[in-house]
């Protein structure tokens, strides 16, 4: 897909155009990924963060947040519940927490691998290459680091103290270490244009990522963007659909943010427009609410096992089924990051 074509689709809100786009993306999804919906159990294990991302509730300037860090035992207990639900991927996510040493997280990875037949995705932000290598050597399989926006100027405006080129460096490093690589973006950020969103989709397809998470911006009161508009649902789903068409075999989650942005659970719409993954939250119930990257997160009061049941019903309601396999990358890694 040419960037100009992507822009045309993103600008077109005519109902018949949307129906056609979603059907096309759903066809590509069916052809390359089949009807199974993969599950990744997420465990949010630290809400401490040294960064000041202007959209994120975990940013260090948010003094209202009651921060937490799980112990290794608590993480292993959560992973046990994921295994008990027959799910074969755990995503360990945190803020950028310098108290988490490479050695400690490597030990967590090793213990999970010793006890369970499970793929491990890490999502702990920007680190030196040696840390990525250490976790890879310990057995971690995948790394998730969203670019958030592929426009360097917008990235700089949203991330004071951070460096776009360092984020690219991290994406290159995790790939070079042999991880399956996840990326993604936020749709509807302040000052983000249609051209920017099209640029994100081009970035995803050029870099051949194995997984791409796209969610709408949800304003958090304790951030500098707290008073801004939330990202559009239709625009986000169009971005998912176009990413499916542009990338073919990438795993695309129907993100929790899409499930949380409105009254309705819009993850179902994403699943019908190219998405093939859901991410039930297995953070211990007492901590789920405290990992508040944005407000109104869906199902924080539910037991995780209950969420899996809901996901089965959701899949069945659209003629699909839950696929309990690991869901490794279908892509052959051919391209090299710029
Ligand atoms: N520290 C890790 C994880 C970040 S939180 C890292 O840097 O990769 C996980 C994701 O939540 C982010 O990548 C971002 O895409 C999303 N996010 C954060 N704040 C958000 C908001 N207000 N609205 C929507 N998505 C948000």
Task: Write a brief caption for the model.
By secondary structure, the chain is of the alpha/beta class.
Please outline the helices and strands.
Blueprint: H1 3-11, H2 15-33, E1 36-39, E2 41-46, H3 72-84, E3 89-94, H4 102-115, E4 119-123, H5 129-138, E5 142-144, H6 152-158, H7 164-176, E6 180-187, H8 194-207, E7 211-216, H9 233-247, H10 256-260, H11 267-271, E8 277-278, H12 285-288, H13 304-317, E9 321-323
Parallel strand pairs: 1-8, 1-9, 2-3, 3-4, 4-5, 5-6, 6-7
Largest sheet: 6 strands, parallel
Indicate the CATH class: Alpha Beta
Low-pLDDT runs of 5+ residues are 332-338
Give the end-to-end Cα distance, rounded to a whole number of Å.
19 Å
Distinct compounds present: S-adenosyl-L-homocysteine
| Rg from alpha-carbon coordinates | 18 Å
CATH superfamily: Aldolase class I
Number of strands: 9
Shape: globular
User: Largest beta sheet: what is the strand line-up?
Assistant: 2-3-4-5-6-7
CATH architecture: Alpha-Beta Barrel
Number of helices: 13
- Kindly state the percentage of residues in helix: 40-55%
Number of individual domains:
1
Explain the overall architecture.
This protein has 13 helices and nine strands. The chain has 338 residues and is α/β, with parallel strands linked by helices. It has a single domain, classed as Aldolase class I (TIM Barrel, Alpha-Beta Barrel). A six-stranded parallel β-sheet has the order 2-3-4-5-6-7. It has a three-stranded parallel β-sheet with strand order 8-1-9. Helix 8 links the parallel strand 6 and strand 7. Helix 2 packs across helix 9 and helix 4 runs parallel beside helix 5. The C terminus is likely disordered. The site of S-adenosyl-L-homocysteine has 18 residues, from loops.
